[in-house]
User: What shape does this take?
Amino acid sequence: MNAYSVDHSHDDLHDHGPPPGLMRWVTTTNHKDIGTLYLWFSLIMFFIGGFMALIIRTELFQPGLQIVDPHFFNQMTTMHALVMIFGVVMPAFVGLANWMLPMMVGAPDMALPRMNNWSFWILPFGFAMMLSTLFMEGGGPASGWTIYPPLVLQTGDALPFLIFSIHILGVSSIMGAINIVATIMNMRAPGMTYMKMPLFVWTWFITAYLLIAVMPVLAGAVTMLLTDKFFGTSFFDAAGGGDPVMFQHIFWFFGHPEVYILILPAFGIVSEIIPTFSRKKLFGYSSMVYATASIAFLSFIVWAHHMFTVGMPLAGEIFFMFTTMLIAVPTGVKVFNWVSTMWRGAMTFETPMLFAIGFVIMFTIGGFSGLMLAMTPIDFQYHDTYFVVAHFHYVLVPGAIFAIIAAVYYWLPKWTGNMYDEKLGKAHFWLSTIFVNILFFPMHFVGLAGMPRRIPDYAVQFTDFNQIATIGAFGFGFAQILLLVVAIKCIRGGAKATNEVWEGAHGLEWSVASPAPYHTFSPQPVVK
Amino acid sequence: MSEAIQDKYFVPEAAKWPLVGSISLTILFCGFASYLNGSLLGPTMMVIGFILFVIMLFGWFGQVVNESEAGTYRKWEDMSFRMGMCWFIFSEVMFFAAFFGALYYAREFSVPWLLGDGDGLPTHNLLWPGYTEVWPTNGPDDLGGSDYHMGWWPLPFINTVILLTSGLTVTWAHHAIKVDNRKQFVYGLFLTVLLGFIFVFLQGYEYVYAYDQGMKLSSGIYGSTFFMLTGFHGLHVTLGAIILLVMLVRAMLGHFSGHRHFAFEAAAWYWHFVDVVWLGLFIFVYIL
Amino acid sequence: MNTLHRTKSGLFGLLAYMTTSSTWADWELNLTQGVTDISRDVYDMHMFVLWICVWIGVVVFGAMTYSMIKHRKSKGSVPAKFSHSTLAEVIWTVIPFGILVTMAVPAANTLVRMEDTSDSEVTVKITGHQWKWEYEYLDSGVRIISSLDPDSRQAAALNSGIDPNTVDNYLLEVDNPLVLPVDKKIRFVLTASDVLHAWWVPEFAIKKDAIPGFINDMWTKIDEEGIYRGQCAELCGRDHGFMPIVVHATSESEYEDWIQAQLASAEAEAQSADREWVMDELMERGEGVYGTYCVACHQPNGQGIEGVFPSLVGTDMVLNDLDGHIDVILNGVEGTSMQAFSTTLNDADIAAVVTYERNAWGNDTGDVVQPATIKDMRVQ
Ligand code: HEA
Ligand code: HEA
Ligand code: CUA
Ligand SMILES: [Cu+2]
Assistant: This one.
């Protein structure tokens, strides 16, 4: 062990609890506090984004326009996606990383605690800016979350606010990611070698690189939109020698890695939970690591599968088709490893395990439809229909969201020191699973039958399945209130949790008290 | 072994500057956005936001400098800062990559396609008959009226020499501080800063010249890529020079020592980064 | 009641889908087989991939389910000790890879065929506008504009009170369908005037983006006569959901007749532009033009939509500024969705719509604008 010669004049500071009052949360540099802030923020945004989704689904309950103008509908589609991606899934993962990474690698805190505070606190400001556009002249952005020009350039006063809020969210993500990389590389306890790190740490490590690599590209893309609109450049205007499709290339160079940013930490979470409740070591640890890295690598060379219909040269279409299909191989390795971990284990099915299993099954279904979309000639039929909507909601909702929920149940006792209400948790799982399928499965059918996405009104033959989906949406939405109830109940009290919490749990985070002390480790742990 | 971990790694207690940072950035950006939308309040907000932002920088970095000078940071913290800076620079590289990508795409794809290339599509015949310009071009609609080509000789070449030299002087300064030679350190830094500002001045001169030739930001895709790439680079040089200037002041105040000068090193890395970006610009924007 | 019934039949449909395979043919559930060689190819490939996924799913989920039933603690299962197996891992890397190859090869072949637009016999230029399609037969010069059928538009207004189920082909009907001959290789060249659109008819299995300033192309060869419907498939603004596509595929001789008829009426149209028009004529024609080109934004009552599309009722421009009014229509407003109509509309159309706007909805300026005036404005 490496001992630095230090003199310390701040002895009396340790093991302080946090300072009391509201300012504690505003000025905190503690990774647990910041993790908590991220998680609450994300839950609130989930309800906001979900509320928007319910407006969408209500309008789509019947053909004809009943409640909103098409322009407002498009704003809802756009905002729903932006909120869910940048305001829910990403902050939730960063929150989990904040809470768990330092504990999992045996670190005193995140590497750059002040910057950590800023990464979080700039988020609410960014979102306040973004959401405020809904009340501006001409309404919020209505061009889809992909903000393609030239359409997005028709946005009213909202446009510069949208662009700057994306800049701010980008700054937040980049700072968060840098912090995570620095923490993992620099803060591991003695003996915690890379190949001993828990998979959640590994997947976040790789995700953080993706973030650092692609968020600036998004910032560049929206900057070009800004100058095209206000400063006379012509990046995306053929009259000046530019090309609207160029935006799509730049956007998806960000956008595709982005969708893996939304799923890799989920892979990590599931790889923690399944071994615990199978009471068996994770099968194929090192191949899990390599598979994650391969997925991340491939994610940089598949972006144009979102743009098969823009009229790329044939060679380009074939290249992007093949590389995209390749991603099925490492992802398959992960799925098979999870199944093998369960195989001949001694499983119990507490709520986290249920959500993890739900994740594996439904993510795989979403992966299958992704593979179908990857095949260029058939994608010409699927593209921009509800089949795509079904695909990405399967990977995002019973995918990313389920994994986040699983993680919350899994670590909640460690955070609060109390066990959550298992009955309510199980009810939450079953309601969620049933309704999420009622919500998204029919979208495959209407998509195949020819219903385009991003439309507020549809031809009458699509009515049935849209109605089913809407019913599912309300069911799923209201089931999520249970999550809030469980969380609050658990914070308030409940059966005391042991340090280990789960019978099969391994890892540093289970070696400390529940609730985890404000400053986790003292002395520094050593991993053998 | 039994030493408390909090004694080995400095975890600051409470941070108030990030909040000021968030507020200032929000005011700044909202002001800019309002200004773009034609609101009269915009510029005022921008000024307020900017001032707050600068205050935040002074406050935050001031605190860090004080802690650093008080010996709060040791090797472990130092390593975190180094990584933070490395990956920050990497993210900047990716930001520039977006614009280099745009340049590449425009030259290799969109302009040739507008000229009728690619799958034998009749874009040219049907939409832009008579368009014949290859690079540099301001597009089939002759936007901005001029696509004057900014050659690499003489100004950009001189600028290249200046920046490369400043890379050397900053390295000289680095070597000097490593052996605690403060005098050379200050000289090296001073020269670097000076060269940096000369570069920015010459770049400004080139812009004036370009505008005289009618080549503007709005001169089609050539003007767009030229000014955005060189403009963002110039901005980064200015920033880098200001950071180095702060280092110079600190050096003169007696900060830094042979084994503890991370802030300076970070500034030097940053400087090398703008250097490398310039080489990319010189090759891809000016020469090719 | 109606809704309840539909929900029930929907659930029933789901059940039927799961139990019988004959429902696969029902195009409310699955991809259409379409009416071209390519579309059938695409359909077969879709089914092939789908079944592969289903089978992999059966194996993977089957193994999981078995394990969940057998290997639970409550059944007294004792955890095994294994934690990796190189052989197994190689197998489940290589086999999926092999499966992917069997999918990729035919896909690439079909793709090559789809992208080959050479040797076409008919060429149609498609231009997407917010929110209508313009078709130009490049061989004969015939040009038509195709926008949403008025019945659908009426029913689609917010709270119109009209039940969409009572409208024929709700949202999938247009005023002027595209007429195409069967058994001929037809090449489409696509572009757009304002924002991105995408032209898609599922039965032909072709979809491609229409991009302002660029030309894309694709082709089809229709096997059966009939009416085929599709929709714009790229978000293009407020009425993206309201710009359908209808194709009448007819025999070659019918197609030729249709082209001749179009040419004749275009000729008559050109003649009429030079003469003097009277108010009533202009108003009638103007109403028609307005209904096709302008109504989507400025609304049937001319009031527009607050904050998005300006009202044309009682505004300064419409009441007092004739030149400005004509100018806006000819040249559009840069950076907004108000596009330039100088190429889409002829002199008579513009004269008529200006006259209409200046006299409808209580504007009552009494202005009568002649096509000749527009012609002069164009020259400037
Ligand atoms: C969490 C997010 C996430 C994830 C993980 C994925 C995963 C994948 N996605 Fe998805 N995708 C999105 C989010 C995501 N996607 C979003 C948001 C969009 C829409 C964006 C927009 O337009 O708004 C989209 C759109 C999208 C498209 C564009 C569709 C279109 O617009 O026309 C395509 C096309 O190729 C695609 C493909 C894939 C593929 C091949 C995978 C693969 O990674 C899946 C791999 C997994 C499996 C295949 C299952 C498990 C594997 C096995 C069991 C092994 C054996 C299997 C075989 C050999 C078949 N996705
Ligand atoms: C992580 C990402 C994520 C998540 C979690 C979701 C979740 C949901 N999504 Fe979304 N969605 C996207 C990402 C996501 N989506 C993206 C990227 C798009 C593409 C956008 C584009 O085209 O540009 C999209 C588009 C999209 C569409 C297509 C819109 C269109 O094409 O026009 C639809 C339609 O049904 C939809 C529905 C839903 C529903 C019902 C949920 C549900 O799962 C939501 C459930 C949650 C709740 C319902 C909240 C629960 C709270 C309450 C019930 C309390 C109620 C609160 C109050 C009354 C204050 N989404
Ligand atoms: Cu045109 Cu969508
Ligand atoms: Cu993708």
User: Anything to note?
Assistant: The two ends of chain C are 62 Å apart (CA to CA).
